[in-house]
Amino acid sequence: MTAEELKSGYIFLLDKPLDWTSFQAVNKMKYKLKREFDLPKKFKIGHAGTLDPRATGLLIVCCGKFTKKIPEIQDAPKEYWTEIKIGVQTESYDTEKPEILHQDISHITEEQVKEVLEKFIGEIEQKPPVYSAIKIDGERAYNLARAGEEVEMKARKTTIHYIKDVKIDFPLVSFMVGCSKGTYIRSLAHDIGQELGVGAYLTQLRRTKIGDYAIENATDQFLNNEYRFESL
User: Fold this and answer.
1) Contact yes or no for 231/211 (Cβ under 8 A)
2) Domain Pseudouridine synthase II N-terminal, which positions (predicted)?
3) Count of Cβ atoms closer than 10 Å to residue 194 Cβ
4) 70-74 average pLDDT score
């Protein structure tokens, strides 16, 4: 890898760690690349699809002229390994907020869960979580929510291509989900809980694919302080 190659265009596949924002990951990459390769101040770099801090997995970072590929990559279908907990909810629909609204799930069967999951395959209407980066009147929804303001999220159409490899160990349910751009898996977890009548929230999320790019080819070494790019 050379500075010229990076400026001409390069794609990195990162395995984003838990509790990192996508912005933090890109910033660290930018700092390391500029330091190692003496790149110009205005060196272009950006990610092709945000991952929430509480999610791990595939984060695609495009450099140089390949930043033009970002919209194309963002439009590609995604795949996630997903784990939800039923019988309880959180305000953020994930582990950022504490559990609330505990309910008895002793009457819920594995067959019921599988039937409910099947209902979500295809085009669906979905409301994004209030704790999301969507802008409302120029302000991020999560900033409004954290300030205690009422946030009304508008439903939008999205597509769930498949739900497979379902594993049930009550109260936990895990599965692989393939979906279109703009799908909120946190909202999917919440909506599954509402359909079951006992609530649910997202406990773990790992992005495994974006289009033809797969997590098997990604690394977290670029985010390690000891890593040097010369070892590539």
Assistant:
1) no
2) 43-185
3) 12
4) 94
Residue 224 belongs to what domain range? 3-75+212-231
24-56 pLDDT, tens digit per residue, is 999 988 888 888 888 888 889 999 988 988 999
Selecting among 19, 38, 52, 165, the annotated active-site residue is: 52
Q: Is 19 tagged catalytic?
A: no
Residue 206 pLDDT greater than 70, yes or no? yes
Q: Are 100 and 78 in contact (CB under 8 A)?
A: no
Regarding whether 177 and 87 lie in a shared domain, the answer is yes
CA distances from 21 to 25, 49, 59, 60, 232 (A): 6, 12, 10, 13, 25
CATH of the domain at 101: 3.30.2350.10
CA neighbours closer than 13 Å in the CB half-sphere of residue 36: 20
**One-letter amino acid of 87:** G
